[in-house]
Amino acid sequence: MQRDGLFEELKADVLKGEVFPAVRKNELHFYYKGGCLYKFADGSFKRDKNYEKYGDEFKGFPPYERAKKENEEKFKNSLGGEAERQLLDRLYCHTFNPEESSNVVVLDIEVNLGGQAVRKCDLVLLNTRTDEIMFVEGKVFSDSRVKVRPPHIPEVIAQVNTYTAAIKEQRQTILAQYAKHIEIINALFGTSYRPPKRLVEPAKLLVYGTPQNPTKNGEYAIDKINTELGASNVLWVKNNDNATLNDIWNALRKQPDIVVFDLETSGMNCEEDSIIEIGAVKLSGGKITDEFHSFVSCPQKLNRQIARLTGVNNKVLAGEPPIKDVLENFYAFADGCILYSYNLAYDWKFIEHVADLCGINFDNDKFDILPLVREKLQDKVSNYKLSTVAEYYGIDTKNHNILDVAKTAVKILLKLLS
Known about the structure:
This protein is of the alpha/beta class.
């Protein structure tokens, strides 16, 4: 493909932001003015013959310029889905512009799940700073899939929910396919995007052309969509408003809460010993918003050393709930949050072992506070124990239970991130 002279013409317009490449299954499509300009498939470039009827007056033009003129003519008065595509094209132009300063760019890549092609989402936004991708379905307000009469349900709700379900079920597959296609894009167009690390959940909806004063039917559609998808997952762009990619990302990307947790255990071996206490603190916007604490019934007799180290003995644990109940409650508490722990490897081997036995699937992103401490405080402290680091930051460490330890870890994390 790169040896074909047509590719050089297309690439020049791609870098100017006039033409946008889209990765399809075994094909690469190039879009211009709302429609496909060329596609590369089976080793050659192909042009849709249906466009030629719009180009009678351009017969004397070179083939590439004529194709562009045909697209302009076909889509200059478009309505519906084609108008939607033209609105979205305003955002696509940022992806390959070497002078673009936006942290957010658009990827047009069709992923394949389990052998079945997923309906292509209009916008897949890549945040080049956080390496996250977000699925955003784009519509115009006048689209019949958005604006409906009561009691009909806007079709776009099911469409967005389909993407959300795919994200939940096939997260790693989607990330792997995007990583592969980004590698192709980088090789063809000289970009240097990193493969995505995370998928933002749930999928989002962007609606252009929302009237300042909608009719009753319009108000019904807005309320219905906001209710079903969640108002924070929908961006209604008013008529004549110009939302940038950064605007869209910031409006739709709800930062997940953080849960910092810690455990007490009856020993060091996750297969033979037990979790006897869990403490956790939830952070939202840098502030503590919730707490979780529970002792856990223990089938083993705790030895004196464990009792002395943890302050927990069998008398304390008598009548406490079993680990399955406690872990299910902790799962609900941490659902959708990013998990942090001080020395995550130790804590998580216990959580993971019990979760597997109980059939609980923790799919949270997880991070260890300890490497951050080592990076920030290298040569500043004698060791990296929690108590030593807390003392360095002037944090009170009069811990009475594992919840207090988690609160100390939270204070350290906030110091590290500030």
